[in-house]
Amino acid sequence: MINQQQLWDDEAAKRYDTPGEGMFSAEVLGPTVEVLAKLAGDGPAVEFAIGTGRVAIPLSKAGVAVSGIELSHAMIASLRQKVGEARIPVVQGDMTEAWAGDDFSLAFLVFNTISNLLTQEEQIRCFQNAARHLAPGGCFVVELWVPQLRSLPPGHGGTVEVSEPGYLLVDTYDVLHQHVISHHVRFGPELSDGRDARIARTPHRYIWPSELDLMARLAGFKLESRWADWNRSEFSAAARSHVSVYRIAAR
């Protein structure tokens, strides 16, 4: 079994932030924060796998009281370089069981992170843990990629997802266990004489939207909305990702 604490170590935390670019760009963060702030309303929010604060910090600046759960000591240390515990309290632990309090109006888990849990049982426990954090009528938001098995050529076990100067992303599939390993290959003149490459691997368990909905139902949630992105575009068969909003019953 992969040790997630070792996977998200000091080196990973140092490379994680890309200010103003990629998932840290205003085009991505702006709509994300807008949707989450609206769902939180006047209540507090808790982010599962808060990381270095990519979403939590701007959401806090938007006026939402944010807490977090995070497994990696290194990611928490990076977050603490930006904001203190008083502003964004974080519980160190596994998002399937760590406890950050109750009566939150919103729990959220973004950027495919639920797939870092490598068994169906762990993923179900994550939903159950979200449910026990929420006030009656609260919601749990999950952002997740749609498995791209249609792009897997017959007889081949992998796909090239990104090919650009200095970087390759190759995904290899174990369709029996719904596992994917993403191979991040970085190369170029900055690595020795240009003939060397650096590779990092991240494992995932992919989840079909219908399976995710069943996990939610087992934890007492009902699907309220599903969009293709944070701009609330229509979700279709061609979508490569989705943002799903699950609402727990008002007790």
Concise account of the structure shown:
The chain is α/β, with parallel strands linked by helices and 251 residues long. Helix content is 25%, strand content 31%.
Report on this model:
With 251 residues, the protein is of the alpha/beta class. The protein is built from seven helices and eleven strands. The strands form two sheets. The protein has a seven-stranded mixed sheet with strand order 3-2-1-4-5-11-10, with helices on both faces. A hairpin with a 4-residue loop joins strand 7 and strand 8. The chain starts with a helix and ends with a strand.
List low-pLDDT spans.
none
**N/C terminus separation:** 38 Å
Order of helices and strands: HHHEHEHEEHEEEEEHEE
Inertia-based shape: globular
What portion of residues is helical? 25-40%
Q: Which structural class fits the helix and strand makeup?
A: alpha/beta
Mean pLDDT score:
91
Q: What Rg do the Cα atoms give?
A: 18 Å
Q: Give the amount of beta strand, in percent.
A: 25-35%
In DSSP terms (H or I, runs of 4 or more residues), the helix count works out at 7
Q: What is the strand tally?
A: 11
Q: Characterize the biggest β-sheet.
A: 7 strands, mixed
Strand order of the largest sheet: 3-2-1-4-5-11-10
